[in-house]
Write a sequence for this structure.
């Protein structure tokens, strides 16, 4: 299935390949630049009608060329416009030189710019074409514009922002709006890039989408199109046993709440049966709070193996409030042939024995989902986490390949990755999901979808997306209990 245009993402390198393919196809690259620059000017006039002056900052490449075209269009429209160049214009080449030559106004060196009240800055310095820290003169201008609180319209990406990783390269503009062309980059969605871009607009400059798709990798924005085909449906003849049996492991008597949150979320998310498996000292406290959710006593790995021999359990969640240590590791090894969501304490239990975990799930279809936040990811994949050249998407993909697991690398920009290199960046989660117990609810939702037969990656991606929708439904004052109640939110909201 083709990725819908709205969810397509291209790395800067992939977009460069698209541009080259467009030229090989016979498209006029300067005509594409004219459309891009015209779109920038139109966006500036539409969204900043109160500007006293448009200040266009132009770089040495095609991003700068877009800026020169935009400046020409703005002048023709009667807008006040000032252009500042990072480089000597005599050094421009190709389409950028042609665009600069067509601009009839004065061009000053970038270092001469002094912010004025009423300025709207059009940032056409680098876009996605930067792989090193910004020059000092650009860093200084970024600081001056931020201090003056001037609105910025960024062309392609705010200059200084890495289009692959979404991180600043020394410094980056904070744009009120960003206009990009044909498709967004991962840096538009990954934090802090998403905030630095402001509102992002994608403009079609006329490159055939088949050329764009031909260069796209396996990274996209998370959306139902990627997992809806595997999503469980409820038919008239559906029986509770056909909807799967989810087991959630409880911690000791003083730490039972997290497991109950996961279990409730699993029940709401459609598992036909949900059981909390609890040690003896947690039976009474769990029993006092459970109704539709069943309870089963499990103290030792022997108890677990006996239960597995006698009960038909479809999927498991281990980690929320469970406790860190040998018991968690032993339980996971007993479950190595079963669909498992490993969260929180379950992940941390393997920080010094990670290869045992990876080897246990290395064969067959992917059946393990790991749901680490930043700290847990670093404990399980310390070398990957520490690599400064990798962005969050790349880290998640490498971790998924190493662990033979679906990785849910949590955060405001949660990334879901599969061992085969697929990755989805999630964007629909509201900020108030950052509350205690939210991750327990997510683990239960993913576990329920696996119990109903969804493959690990699709279950993880669907669970993350629906977790965001549940957060919206619950509202900004939500607690984890509210979130769990809304875990059954429909795709229509």
């Amino acid at each position: 299935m083709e990725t819908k245009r709205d969810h397509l993402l291209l790395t800067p390198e992939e977009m460069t390949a698209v541009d080259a393919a467009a030229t090989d196809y016979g498209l006029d690259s300067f005509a594409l630049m004219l459309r891009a620059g015209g779109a920038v000017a139109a966006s500036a006039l539409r969204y900043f009608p109160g500007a006293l002056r448009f200040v266009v900052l132009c770089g040495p490449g095609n991003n700068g060329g877009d800026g020169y075209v935009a400046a020409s269009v703005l002048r023709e429209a009667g807008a006040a416009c000032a252009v500042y160049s990072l480089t000597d214009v005599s050094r421009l080449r190709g389409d950028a030189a042609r665009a600069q030559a067509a601009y009839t106004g004065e061009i000053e060196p970038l270092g001469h710019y002094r912010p004025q009240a009423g300025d709207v800055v059009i940032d056409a310095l680098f876009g996605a074409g930067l792989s090193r820290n910004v020059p000092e003169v650009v860093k200084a201008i970024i600081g001056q514009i931020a201090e003056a609180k001037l609105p910025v319209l960024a062309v392609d990406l705010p200059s200084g922002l890495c289009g692959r990783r979404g991180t600043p390269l020394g410094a980056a503009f904070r744009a009120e709006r960003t206009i990009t062309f044909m498709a967004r980059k991962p840096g538009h969605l990954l934090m802090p890039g998403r905030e630095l871009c402001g509102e992002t607009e994608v403009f079609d400059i006329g490159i055939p989408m088949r050329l764009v798709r031909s260069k796209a990798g396996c990274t996209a924005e998370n959306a139902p199109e990627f997992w809806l085909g595997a999503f469980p449906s409820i038919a008239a003849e559906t029986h509770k046993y056909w909807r799967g049996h989810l087991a959630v492991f409880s911690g000791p008597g003083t730490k039972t709440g997290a497991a109950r949150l996961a279990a409730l979320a699993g029940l709401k998310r459609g598992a036909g049966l949900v059981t909390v498996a609890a040690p003896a000292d947690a039976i009474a406290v769990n029993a006092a709070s459970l109704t539709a959710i069943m309870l089963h006593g499990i103290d030792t790995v022997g108890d677990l193996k006996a239960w597995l021999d006698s009960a038909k359990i479809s999927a498991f969640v281990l980690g929320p409030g469970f406790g860190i240590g040998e018991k968690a590791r032993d339980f996971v090894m007993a479950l190595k042939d079963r669909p498992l969501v490993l969260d929180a304490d379950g992940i941390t239990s393997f920080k010094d024995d990670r290869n045992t975990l990876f080897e246990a799930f290395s064969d067959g279809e992917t059946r393990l989902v790991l749901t680490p936040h930043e700290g847990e990811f670093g404990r399980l994949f310390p070398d990957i986490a520490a690599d400064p050249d990798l962005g969050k998407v790349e880290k998640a993909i490498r971790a998924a390949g190493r662990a033979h697991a679906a990785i849910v690398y949590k955060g405001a920009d949660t990334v879901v990755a599969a061992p085969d290199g697929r990755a989805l960046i999630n964007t629909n989660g509201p900020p108030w999901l950052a509350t205690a117990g939210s991750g327990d609810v997510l683990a239960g939702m993913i576990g329920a979808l696996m119990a109903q037969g969804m493959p690990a990656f699709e279950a993880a991606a669907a669970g993350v997306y629906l977790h965001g929708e549940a957060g919206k439904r619950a509202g900004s004052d939500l607690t984890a209990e509210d979130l769990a109640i809304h875990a059954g939110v429909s795709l229509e909201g």
Remarks:
- The mean pLDDT is 96.
